[in-house]
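User: Predict the complex with iron/sulfur cluster.
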Amino acid sequence: MQSANRTCRGCSEEFAVNEKQMERLLASAAFAPELRVAEEEYEARLEACHTCPKFHGGTTCMLCGCLVPVIAHLKSKNCPYPGGGRWAVQHQA
Ligand code: SF4
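Assistant: Here is the predicted structure with iron/sulfur cluster placed in the model:
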């Protein structure tokens, strides 16, 4: 039987993603400027995550496993919170 206090490997300090790794991700073609939401929208998304019960460790959404400070930049991403999400998909004009 597993201990109730056991954490998954991905959630341990050893596997935490650091700023440098996030910067490298954000510099990739997958995060090109035309694929990103406006800065105000990004900040609003982060604010919604920071008050969400599914936000873990300052970086991770426990519903989708995504790195929130990274994926919240993308127009194509949405929040998986039940009932329609806490932030919406941005439609391209
Ligand atoms: S469920 Fe939505 S609001 Fe909550 S941490 Fe995940 S992406 Fe953020």
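The first helix runs from residue 19 to 26.
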